[in-house]
Automatic annotation (TrEMBL):
The chain crosses the membrane at residues 25-47, 68-91, 111-131. It comes from the Bacteria. This is DoxX family protein. The lineage of its organism: Bacteria, Bacillati, Actinomycetota, Actinomycetes, Mycobacteriales. It comes from Rhodococcus daqingensis. Pfam families: DoxX_2 (PF13564). It is found in: Membrane. It is a multi-pass membrane protein.
């Protein structure tokens, strides 16, 4: 009878040390900037502001979907601001922002100012979370110790 032994290799353990006070404050500021922007954006969609209706129509969306976009964004944002579900919220916001990038590409918007803007906000979302949450550092370790 032959026995086979399997060995597994694991990546070096990422440090789960709490972020420094400075990193946490910087992360909170970055996350706060993203939250303020997304909150404003979601509320203008829910309020169905004229400028939002016009912009949605220019992008090829039915303006009656404004409230749906606003509520979806608000739900994603709610997950992001609750510490227990912040990683899920960041993933959901990333999906939402990916749709914005796709829309901007399809409608041939200017690259740096418009098409890539959602990516800039994605960097704020994940950068802020990375700096303030050791769980994110554990799954995305940029620096090996």
């Amino acid at each position: 009878m032959t026995t086979t032994s399997y060995t597994t290799t694991t990546a070096p353990a990422a440090t789960n040390a709490a972020p420094s006070r400075r990193a946490r404050i910087t992360g909170l500021v970055l996350s706060g900037l993203a939250v303020v922007f997304f909150l404003f954006d979601s509320l203008t969609h829910i309020a169905n502001v004229e400028q939002v209706r016009t912009a949605m129509e220019d992008l090829g969306f039915d303006p009656s979907l404004n409230r749906v976009f606003g509520v979806v964004l608000l739900i994603c944002l709610a997950f992001y601001v609750v510490p227990l579900t912040s990683i899920l919220g960041a993933v959901l916001l990333t999906g939402y922002l990916g749709g914005a990038v796709g829309t901007n590409l399809l409608t041939e918007q200017p690259i740096l100012s418009t098409t890539l803007a959602p990516i800039y906000f994605g960097i704020l979302v994940w950068g802020g979370l990375y700096l303030r949450d050791s769980r994110v550092r554990a799954i995305m370790p940029f620096v090996r110790g």
